[in-house]
Amino acid sequence: KQEVTQIPAALSVPEGENLVLNCSFTDSAIYNLQWFRQDPGKGLTSLLLIQSSQREQTSGRLNASLDKSSGRSTLYIAASQPGDSATYLCAVDNTDKLIFGTGTRLQVFP
Amino acid sequence: GAGVSQSPSNKVTEKGKDVELRCDPISGHTALYWYRQRLGQGLEFLIYFQGNSAPDKSGLPSDRFSAERTGESVSTLTIQRTQQEDSAVYLCASSLARTGRQKLFFGSGTQLSVL
Asked: What are B92's strand-pairing partners?
């Protein structure tokens, strides 16, 4: 059974810091891994999708890496801003459905 | 439509009543998913549709839960004889095809409260 873990569970940092959010999964036979952002009272927004054959994806200040063999992914946020405050979820797809981690709750203060 | 639409946004019901939750996916998206998120917890997979058929119902927690999809469009999640443990946010998502290659787009969810 696929299990997804995210560390840390919560993070509070001052504006401008570079951040690393971690995601690990137990079954490496995945199709892809996605990172999402969830704002309070809202649904999830897909940030980055990494196919199993890829090692990283970049979008603006966000960079996600994937090491499938070791069951790990990292989301790197450069020059964090207060608007980045949200819960970040990683999810892996290995059976036509996404299995989610419990998220990292990020707060960036001015 | 422009995005995935869910209704109602909030639903308060009494224990033992039946509820129906609706999801309108993005037009043309063949794959549709239902997830549940209890307070302070992660997303729990419920059911997946490819077109109008549901290849994977493994996440439905009990036979009180059912879902259908018609016209490869709208989906309804029905919970019969609701219990307090059913209280959660129910999220719907759609994608162009199987998630193996496509991003998932989520609605804003239905907050269900069972009193």
From this structure: B34
For residue A101, the tally of other CB atoms under 10 A from its CB is: 26
Q: CA B31: distance to chain centroid?
A: 12
The string of DSSP codes covering A61-109 is: TEEEEEETTTTEEEEEE-S--GGG-EEEEEEEESSSSEEE---EEEEEE
CB contact under 8 A, B101 and A42: no
Chain A residue with Cα closest to B40: A102
User: What are A47's two structure tokens?
Assistant: 């940030």
pLDDT above 90 as % of chain B: 73
Question: Is residue A34 less than 8 Å (CB to CB) from chain B?
Answer: yes
Name the DSSP class of A32: E
Tokens of B59: 């996440």
Q: For residue A84, report the phi and psi dihedrals to the nearest 5 degrees.
A: -80, -10
Task: Count the Cβ atoms, other than its own, within 10 Å of residue B41.
Answer: 12
CA gap B66, B2 in Å, rounded: 27
Are B94 and B81 in contact by the 8 Å Cβ rule? The answer is no
pLDDT digits (tens, 9 = 90+) for B97-108: 765 567 889 999
